[in-house]
Amino acid sequence: MIFAQTAFMIQRIQSIYLLAVAISGILMYFFPLVSLVPSAASASPVIYHLSALQVEILDGGQTSVYVRYWPSLILNAFIVAFSVYTILQFRKRPFQLKCANVLLLLIIAELALLAFDVERLKSSAAPDHMTAYNVFTAIPIIQVILARMAVSGIKKDEALVRSADRLR
Fold first, then answer.
1. CA dihedral over 152, 154, 157, 161, signed as positive or negative
2. Which of 54 and 5 is assigned the larger pLDDT?
3. CA–CA separation, 97 vs 89, rounded Å?
4. Of 102, 33, 104, 16, whose CA–CA distance to 73 is shortest?
5. In this structure, is the dihedral angle defined by the CA atoms of residues 110, 113, 119 and 121, taken in order, positive or negative?
6. Could you tell me if 22 and 143 are in contact, meaning their C-beta atoms sit under 8 angstroms apart?
């Protein structure tokens, strides 16, 4: 019985989008979003890797935790949990729409917080370090796009249900 309800829930495209938001939020813990690397003429060979979990230092082949950014960690965990909660609200589409809009705002706040964390890391690192972006830097932007697509999918479902109710 529960599996049949879950299968019905996952068949809706907005559930797939919200699940992708949750999975990408989990990925943000394990992969560096931004790195600070020394320039060619640098005296400091230290490399900083910023993820949603922490800042790691790579110095002479040894990795150590530099600092944990608790606001980013907590906000990202809340986004992952809230996106799963939003998926589970599939029977109450108006409420699910409100939850998806709140999720979109939370992801935008996380994006701003990560930009703030990068600037804070730049100020604490040596001045000759350059910012290096990689493919995982785009994860928060992809999350915004997926959350927006989920909102539009929920709106389409609600419009379809309302039009079917008018025909009855």
1. negative
2. 54
3. 9
4. 33
5. negative
6. no
* Six-digit token string for 80: 């992952």
**pLDDT tens-place string over residues 11-61:** 588 889 999 999 999 998 888 888 888 877 666 677 777 888 777 877 877
Partners of residue 48 on adjacent β-strands: 36, 57
Tokens of residue 59, six digits: 């110095």
AA letter at 44: S
Residue 58: count other Cβ atoms within 10 Å of its Cβ. Answer: 17
Task: Tell me the H-state helices in the chain.
Answer: 2-10, 13-30, 70-87, 93-124, 139-167
Token readout for 21 is 């938001």
Tell me if residue 151 falls in helix, strand or coil: helix
pLDDT digits 0-9 by tens, 90-137 = 888 889 999 999 999 999 999 999 888 888 888 877 777 788 888 888
Rg of the Cα trace of the chain?
A: 20
Domains of the chain: 32-163 (1.20.140.150)
Can you give the pTM of this predicted structure? 0.83
pLDDT at 11 (0 to 100): 59
Backbone angles phi, psi at 129, to 5 degrees: -80, 140
